Amino acid sequence: MASTATVQELVRVLAYPKFQLDAGAREELLADYLPYTRTVRIPAPPPMVPVCRDPFDVPFLHLAAVGRARSLVTGDRDLLALAGSAPFAILTLDAFIQSLGVSS
Protein backbone atom coordinates (compact mmCIF):
# COMPACT_ATOMS: atom_id res chain seq x y z
CA MET A 1 0.00 0.00 0.00
CA ALA A 2 1.04 3.57 -0.53
CA SER A 3 -0.46 7.01 -0.11
CA THR A 4 0.62 10.32 -1.57
CA ALA A 5 2.32 11.24 1.70
CA THR A 6 4.18 7.92 2.06
CA VAL A 7 5.47 8.10 -1.51
CA GLN A 8 6.62 11.68 -0.89
CA GLU A 9 8.48 10.48 2.21
CA LEU A 10 10.04 7.63 0.25
CA VAL A 11 11.26 10.09 -2.40
CA ARG A 12 12.69 12.33 0.33
CA VAL A 13 14.46 9.49 2.13
CA LEU A 14 15.90 7.93 -1.03
CA ALA A 15 17.80 11.20 -1.56
CA TYR A 16 19.75 10.70 1.70
CA PRO A 17 23.49 10.59 0.99
CA LYS A 18 23.82 7.24 2.82
CA PHE A 19 21.93 5.52 -0.01
CA GLN A 20 24.26 6.95 -2.68
CA LEU A 21 21.49 7.02 -5.29
CA ASP A 22 21.60 9.58 -8.05
CA ALA A 23 18.34 10.95 -9.48
CA GLY A 24 18.24 8.32 -12.22
CA ALA A 25 18.68 5.44 -9.78
CA ARG A 26 15.95 6.85 -7.52
CA GLU A 27 13.56 7.14 -10.46
CA GLU A 28 14.34 3.59 -11.55
CA LEU A 29 13.77 2.25 -8.04
CA LEU A 30 10.41 4.02 -7.82
CA ALA A 31 9.43 2.78 -11.29
CA ASP A 32 10.16 -0.78 -10.15
CA TYR A 33 8.32 -0.40 -6.82
CA LEU A 34 5.22 1.72 -7.41
CA PRO A 35 3.42 -0.54 -9.92
CA TYR A 36 3.17 -3.17 -7.17
CA THR A 37 1.56 -0.90 -4.61
CA ARG A 38 -2.12 -0.38 -3.93
CA THR A 39 -2.96 3.31 -3.65
CA VAL A 40 -4.87 4.28 -0.53
CA ARG A 41 -6.52 7.67 -0.23
CA ILE A 42 -6.20 9.15 3.25
CA PRO A 43 -9.38 11.01 4.23
CA ALA A 44 -9.48 14.51 5.63
CA PRO A 45 -9.31 14.58 8.54
CA PRO A 46 -7.06 11.53 8.79
CA PRO A 47 -7.84 8.79 11.31
CA MET A 48 -6.68 9.02 14.89
CA VAL A 49 -3.37 7.23 15.37
CA PRO A 50 -0.92 7.01 18.28
CA VAL A 51 1.20 10.12 18.81
CA CYS A 52 4.57 9.64 17.13
CA ARG A 53 7.80 11.46 17.97
CA ASP A 54 8.67 11.86 14.27
CA PRO A 55 6.06 13.75 12.22
CA PHE A 56 7.47 12.20 9.01
CA ASP A 57 6.33 8.78 10.29
CA VAL A 58 2.70 9.74 10.88
CA PRO A 59 1.64 9.15 7.24
CA PHE A 60 2.68 5.49 7.62
CA LEU A 61 0.41 5.18 10.65
CA HIS A 62 -2.44 6.79 8.69
CA LEU A 63 -1.81 4.44 5.77
CA ALA A 64 -1.84 1.36 7.99
CA ALA A 65 -5.05 2.51 9.71
CA VAL A 66 -6.95 3.44 6.54
CA GLY A 67 -5.64 0.43 4.64
CA ARG A 68 -6.72 -1.85 7.51
CA ALA A 69 -3.26 -3.34 7.73
CA ARG A 70 -2.68 -6.20 10.12
CA SER A 71 0.98 -5.22 10.47
CA LEU A 72 3.23 -2.25 9.86
CA VAL A 73 6.73 -3.62 9.22
CA THR A 74 9.51 -1.16 9.97
CA GLY A 75 13.01 -0.67 11.24
CA ASP A 76 12.18 2.85 12.42
CA ARG A 77 12.67 3.18 16.17
CA ASP A 78 10.04 5.92 16.52
CA LEU A 79 7.40 3.65 14.98
CA LEU A 80 8.58 0.55 16.86
CA ALA A 81 8.18 2.51 20.13
CA LEU A 82 4.44 2.59 19.38
CA ALA A 83 4.07 -1.21 19.26
CA GLY A 84 1.00 -2.24 21.22
CA SER A 85 -0.67 1.16 21.00
CA ALA A 86 -2.15 0.83 17.49
CA PRO A 87 -4.96 -1.36 16.15
CA PHE A 88 -2.33 -3.14 14.01
CA ALA A 89 0.95 -4.79 14.91
CA ILE A 90 4.12 -2.72 14.53
CA LEU A 91 6.97 -5.14 13.94
CA THR A 92 10.55 -5.38 12.75
CA LEU A 93 11.08 -7.42 9.60
CA ASP A 94 12.54 -10.30 11.66
CA ALA A 95 9.54 -10.30 14.01
CA PHE A 96 7.15 -10.21 11.06
CA ILE A 97 8.85 -13.16 9.38
CA GLN A 98 8.78 -15.02 12.67
CA SER A 99 5.06 -14.28 13.04
CA LEU A 100 4.49 -15.97 9.68
CA GLY A 101 6.25 -19.10 10.88
CA VAL A 102 8.86 -18.81 8.16
CA SER A 103 12.47 -19.56 9.01
CA SER A 104 14.91 -16.95 7.76
Which helices and strands occur, and which strands form pairs?
Blueprint: H1 4-14, H2 23-33, H3 58-66, E1 71-73, H4 77-80, E2 89-91, H5 93-99
Parallel strand pairs: 1-2
What does this structure look like?
This protein is mostly helical. The protein has one domain (4-99). It is built from five helices and two strands, in the order H-H-H-E-H-E-H. It has helices at residues 4-14, 23-33, 58-66, 77-80, 93-99, and strands at 71-73, 89-91. It has a two-stranded parallel ribbon.
Question: Notable features of this structure?
Answer:
104 residues; mainly alpha; two-stranded parallel sheet; 40% helix
Helix/strand/pairing category: mainly alpha
Run of helices and strands: HHHEHEH
Q: What's the number of extended β-strand segments? A: 2
How is the largest sheet built, in terms of strand order? 1-2
Uncertain residue segments? none
Q: Please, how many domains?
A: 1
Q: How confident overall, as mean pLDDT?
A: 96
Query: What gross morphology would you assign?
Result: globular
State the helical fraction.
40-55%
Biggest β-sheet: count, sense, barrel? 2 strands, parallel
| Percentage of residues in strands | 5-15%
How far the N terminus sits from the C terminus, by CA atoms, comes to 24 Å
Radius of gyration: 15 Å
DSSP summary: helix tally? 5
